[in-house]
């Protein structure tokens, strides 16, 4: 275990203190430097006036509030909006590099039509009217031949909403976003079936007052979300203990009190042993359990066999460590939190892992308590008045988008055959999957196999199916099966190289988008407005969809002349106006302890489950015959000569979106493969050597080795998002190795999400 206070290492307290002192040191240095330049032989320069525009960031999915400075009609500097609850005015390196999205030399600049084979990147420029006419014609042609359900729409990002609206107006149920099946789905389902309350990845944790973090690979200092990282640092500075479980010694591990070098894929076993220990030792919050919880006796019977000794052989964490952590957390409860990974698409039973995290938090009584999980506030902003969609209800008066699938989760024809092709929300297939977001991994399979019915047209908005999925052959086959594929995006990538028509989007600095409606201690509505006019004749996503709707007879779903008019309409329905929102870029509802922490203020917690209580063995799972999801399932282990293949994030890049960004590429131009010195020595590999990595399917490639003791000897690791081969990405092409090429593509058996972490690889010196 890591001792943060041993000689030669910086303790976490020292780290925090050094951060506080950095400002004074920097100021002193700058003062000296400024004095040296006072006598420079030229007149002082007067900076030109500039304008400020409000926005929220699109460089990752935390969406920090921004103030964007513009001069001479061009954005030149990004600052944080100090009023925004998600970042408190802080902008990270990725956020600052957003300027390079607008001015990227490689961005898509004009509509293009494919003239060669799909994927060969042979294009001819065409005018906007011709491009939009072709898109409308081809989509309607597919609709006439196969029906509206033959269209698939895959979006990824804050600009995807108008494409979802257009597709649902077209009549297809087959819209997806990777956020569920490829990232957060299992953790959301876990919380919802047990408590009726979803933790989405933007957790409503009272980080500053938490006294004990058990972090299951939640690498908050590198998978960087400013508000979360700031809150966590405040919590640590306020005395919280941090126990960090991860096969790799991350930056977050270096700031923790303990590092548990857990074997990959075994988090569930460790958590089950903790549940066993908490129940056996009666370390749970008895008052909370008695008032709010059902199923303790049934759960007790299920976890009887999951002792600390049982998990030790599986996880390699000592049994006494499990017992000690359980006792320490109980002593600090309810100001404790078992911190789930944001991306919980890893093992064959991610639902069981997620449920175990939710159960532990529940047993410690953290809901609606100081230092635990608070109830967020939101401001309800109704959607605009729209016609009914062919198969889904408009979510009037709510904040979750256009569609409410609660009454009708999939489209049906007279015979009841036309269901979502990915099976999300469909009884007998993947009923636990959220049809609002769908299963993108299963949609790729459906397109590749043309099952359960023909899928012949594809519309994508952002994203890259090759680098956010893990089966290149399936994605490629799916793309080749399309009669027509139109891609809207700001930047080129491998997926949109297969398109028939490319529509170049304005960047997030050049357009209005729909409102950001968030829930934290303060409820808020935030604005994204253009800081400059679109470059190169590009168009915003709402403008593209409105133009297409006119050509497809769907203009009633885009009734406003401008996006600004639409925003004003929504805001006025909530009692506000666009003019009011433009004053500070944000409208907030003040924090209210009685709402945020009702059980600290004489109130009650609310759990909207069928029973109205936290269900440790969820009734929804019982109805589906899945009540054994909590049980441990053996996971793959490396054979002789094999390694667990793992991947993750860094603060410099977001997924596979930023490797072609000139500024961010400077900080990390390629990824490397972490390997433990013992394993490297056996294979004759030295630091910096090129190594050949192969999985059991024969997929692989070459990458530089980073020999380091900061990883388990049975595990290798690389940073996600590299290994691009699209030659239009001139900064990123050919650098590093794609983790998506090596990660596994099996299904989580309860939800249908992808299981990316079960891949085993072999290494050899190249």
Give the % helix. 25-40%
Distance between the termini: 34 Å
What is the global morphology? Answer: globular
| Widest beta sheet: strand line-up | 5-4-17-16-15-6-7
Number of strands: 29
Average pLDDT figure: 90
What is the rounded Rg? 26 Å
Largest sheet: number of strands, sense, barrel closure: 7 strands, mixed
The proportion of residues in beta strands is 15-25%
| Spans where pLDDT lies below 50 across 5 or more residues | 1-38, 396-400, 407-414
In DSSP terms (H or I, runs of 4 or more residues), the helix count works out at 24
Structural class: alpha/beta
Keywords: 4Fe-4S, Iron, Iron-sulfur, Metal-binding, Molybdenum, Oxidoreductase, Signal
Cofactor: Mo-bis(molybdopterin guanine dinucleotide)
Pfam families: Molybdop_Fe4S4, Molybdopterin, Molydop_binding
Protein name: Molybdopterin-dependent oxidoreductase
Descriptive key words:
seven-stranded mixed beta sheet, oxidoreductase, signal, 766 residues, 31% helix, Mopterin_OxRdtase_4Fe-4S_dom, disordered N terminus, iron-sulfur, alpha/beta, six-stranded mixed beta sheet
Describe the fold and architecture:
The chain is an alpha/beta fold and 766 residues long. The chain contains 24 helices and 29 strands. It has a 7-stranded mixed β-sheet with strand order 5-4-17-16-15-6-7, covered by helices on one side. A 6-stranded mixed β-sheet has the order 23-25-24-29-22-26. It has a 4-stranded parallel β-sheet with strand order 10-9-8-12. Strand 9, helix 8 (251-254) and strand 10 form a beta-alpha-beta unit. Helix 6 (178-195) packs across helix 14 and helix 9 (267-280) packs parallel to helix 14. The two termini are 34 Å apart.
